[in-house]
Every structure is written in C-alpha cells, then in structure tokens.
Amino acid sequence: AQSVTQLGSHVSVSEGALVLLRCNYSSSVPPYLFWYVQYPNQGLQLLLKYTSAATLVKGINGFEAEFKKSETSFHLTKPSAHMSDAAEYFCAVSRGGYQKVTFGTGTKLQVIP
Amino acid sequence: NAGVMQNPRHLVRRRGQEARLRCSPMKGHSHVYWYRQLPEEGLKFMVYLQKENIIDESGMPKERFSAEFPKEGPSILRIQQVVRGDSAAYFCASSPRNTEDEKLFFGSGTQLSVL
C-alpha cells in the first residue's frame, strides 16, 4: 500500500525566509509523487510532480522538490517566501493506476510580514 | 476557458434529506474523480468514473452514496438521507487520460453542511 506523511500540519515562516515543507512516502515500488496547493475556497492546483526523469523537480511559483530514495522523502522548498504563498499544501503519491492517488493530510503555510 | 465546474458551492441540508452535487469536467476530459475532504484531514478518494461507467468506487461508503457520469451532462454525486457526519467539502477532479503521471484538475468544491 502507498501512503504519504506530511510532518507539521502548520508551518509559519517570515516573508523572505526559506520555505520547507516535509513529505515522506511509503511505496513498495518507485512512486510518482506530487505537490498540490490549495488556496482558500479553491480546488487543488498542481505545483510539481516527480516521475523519475530527474530527482530535483522544479514547479510553478518558484517551488521545487527533491526526490530522495534513501530517505523516502519528497520535501518541498522555496528559497524566499512571499505573502501570496500562504495556502495549504498537499503531498500525494500515485502508483497502481491514477485513481489510486493518495493525499497527505496537508500543511498550512502561514507567511508572516 | 472553463475549468472543472462544481455546483453548488455551498449546500445546506437537514438530516434525512438528499444532497446532489454536480461536476462538469474540463472540456475534453473523460475521467472524473470525486474526493471528500474532512477538517484536518487530507483528501480521501471516493470514486472514479468514465462516461457511463463506474471504474472504481472503492472509496465510497457502502450505503446512501452513489455516483454517475452519464453520456450527456455532468457527473452527479448523490447522498441520500444525509447525516451530520457527511458534512465536508466534496471535490471533483478530471483528467484527459488515466495514467499514473497524469495530473488532476480540480474544481472549487462543494461545501456540504448538514444541520
């Protein structure tokens, strides 16, 4: 069975500081991994996805994530937080057919001016 | 350039009533997924449909819940005899293909409140 664990349901950073959102996955086979962002009262939008082409994945809005097989991690980072980054972020894993996407419980990011 | 359209945005029902949630996928998308989001929880897969077919309903409660995606018209998630525990945000997503690396396009959700 596949699953993802997001460490920290709430993360606060100062504007301009590094953003680090943690995600660890569990999968018996190499997974496909995703980060989605949800702004208030909206559906989820894809930030980036890992499909084994490269371990460092760049996404939209300056976000990137690195797949580390040895650590079974896929942490999301951004060098400098912006106020508009305040949202909820979901890590997700897919294997065994797309409808089998499993989402983490989400991390709410607060950006402090 | 319409995305995934869900309506209504908010739905209030009393216990025992029926709730109907609608989802129109993006143009050209034939794969529809329904997810439920409870407070402080991630999205939970409910059902995957293609036109006129339910492909995977392993996430659907065994009773009171049903879904359809007819040849014409939107996909419908139907909840009969709602209870307070059904209160949640229900999201619909669509995709043009069903491959493991394909991304999902989400609607803005329907917030169901059961009084």
A few lines on this structure:
The complex is a heterodimer of chains A (113) and B (115). Chain A has 113 residues and is mostly beta strands. Chain A contains no helices and eleven strands.
Please count the helical segments of chain B: 0
Q: List unreliable stretches of 5+ residues of chain A.
A: none
The geometry of chain B reads as: globular
The helix-strand sequence of chain B is EEEEEEEEEEE
The percentage of residues in β strands of chain B lies in over 45%
Radius of gyration of chain B: 13 Å
Total number of beta strands of chain B:
11
Structural class of chain A: mainly beta
User: Largest interface here, residues on each chain?
Assistant: A-B, 26 and 28 residues
Distance between the termini of chain B: 36 Å
Quick one: biggest sheet of chain B?
7 strands, mixed
Oligomer: heterodimer
Number of helical stretches of at least 4 residues of chain A:
0
Polypeptide structure, described:
The complex is a heterodimer of chains A (113) and B (115). Chain A has 113 residues and is mainly β. Chain A contains no helices and 11 strands. In chain A, the strands form 2 sheets. In chain A, strands 2, 4, 5, 9, 10 and 11 form a 6-stranded mixed beta sheet that branches. In chain A, strands 1-3-8-7-6 form a 5-stranded antiparallel beta sheet, with no helix packed on it. In chain A, strand 4 and strand 5 form a beta hairpin. Chain A is globular. The termini of chain A are far apart. The relative contact order of chain A is 0.34. The model of chain A has no long low-confidence stretch (mean pLDDT 89). Chain B has 115 residues and is mainly beta. Chain B is built from no helices and 11 strands. In chain B, strands 2, 4, 5, 6, 9, 10 and 11 form a 7-stranded mixed beta sheet that branches. In chain B, strands 1-3-8-7 form a 4-stranded antiparallel beta sheet, with no helix packed on it. Classes of the chains: A mainly beta (113), B mainly beta (115). Chains A and B meet through strand 4, strand 5 and strand 10 of A and strand 4, strand 5 and strand 9 of B.
